[in-house]
Design goal:
five-stranded antiparallel sheet; about 45% strand; 5 strands; 3 helices; alpha+beta; Thiol Ester Dehydrase, Chain A
Length: about 120
Amino acid sequence: MSLDKGLSFTQEITVEENNTAIAHGSGKLPVFATPAMVAFMENTAVKCIENNLDKALDTVGIQIDTKHIKATKVGKKVTCTAKLTEVDGKKLTFEIEAADEDGPIGSSLHKRYVIDPIKFMERA
């Protein structure tokens, strides 16, 4: 396992109807939902480390502190970048930025914990 500070990953999606506040039940407008943005951010963090994590291990999210500062309409592209900023034993910290074609839309400080999935599920 080589989880080193500085790893980063970027991915992009196009906002669709199923990503909207209406679809997520988090509002009544056809804009990128905060829950959809948070899930996209968390997925970007997962992908940031997946090739550097021992195949027998996994991670679980334990904290996410998110700001959603701008609405994004259906059809616009959203880019998300996660950067691994701290490795403290099994605890990983990410800084995540999201932007649409017009600029920043949100940011997160996200923490994940490295786990053995078999042992984790035995305790769940």
